[in-house]
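Moderator note: this is an archived Q&A kept for reference. The question asked for a predicted structure of one protein chain; the sequence and the answer are reproduced below.
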Amino acid sequence: MITWRAGVVVSLGATWPGSAEVTVELEAPVGTATAGDTVRALAFPALVGSPEIGDRVLLNVSALARGLGTGGYALVIAQPERTPADPPPGPGHLVKARYTPLQAMVLGVDDQESPHHELLREADDLGGLPVVVADLHSALPAVVAGARLAAQRAGRRAPRVAYVMTDGGALPAWFSRTVAGLRSAGWIEACVTTGQSFGGDLEAVTVHTGLLAARHVVGADLVVVAQGPGNLGTGTRWGFSGVAAGEAVNAASTLGGRPVASLRVSGADERERHLGISHHSLTAYGRVALATADVVVPVFDAGPLDGLGSRVAAQAAALGARHRLVEVAAGADVLGALGDSPVRLSTMGRGLADDPGSFLAAAAAGVHAAELAG
């Protein structure tokens, strides 16, 4: 289940809110690394303290042992010889990552001890709030770029955006440099972590209370719902974490929001099942989402993306029986807005130049949502 290693911190690296990179010299080999080699490791100081040079740390190196992703990091589990101080006493009894060795107790926005409890206790309506649902975390900055462009076109202020993070990918929001960068740039107002995910500006028990908090506590003009960085897929029809996108459509509709489905699109993925519209979107929106959503179909400028646009339009037709298909132009101005993103755009290792259709499709959903927000 877990491959453990120990090592000594030999240097400190980049930090961003909630996260700290360190370089660790291994005491024993793992994967292609030998004893004495160094590996990049990531610590979440709120959970394990802040490692310093010379500290001995325990690491989870399971992903490195298997040659998997997780950003290429080992993960710091503990500093056995210098444990962090106890957290300050305070309210909150929600436990996230429950019954794991690093379960964390947080104050939930919907918790009885929360100052927002009374506001949310009977809250039941999003009041038509546009809710953009996306499969991958990489869609987040693109959706927001599109929404900001639409507001600029209309001569309005940039929308107040809340990101509701589900627990299909990374559980700590701190893992996401995207969230940190968008928060710093003022592109998103708040991150609300739901389910087993944690570390957001607000914590919520479910996607439903996360959405209600976005509306009533954050005062968002629109919401983006997506899993954290990383996702799980098995190459099967149903075995992928993005199934939750369909459930998020249902939640938004149940609460009186306006669900907007962002399509996962690619013109460069080597896997046939993800070319054009990914089977993840076709399954999540076509089979799991029982409520009607606005499915945004991007219309690309004539040129290199002509073939991709035709393929996407043909595939999207199957979703028209349940949803409203909304064509949105995803042309040069949208591409320019994506180029202004304050964070790096990357999906499955591909950047904007490598797979523009992916980000243009997400941005088109943001354009439509901002137009609905008015």
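Archived answer notes: The first helix runs from residue 45 to 48.
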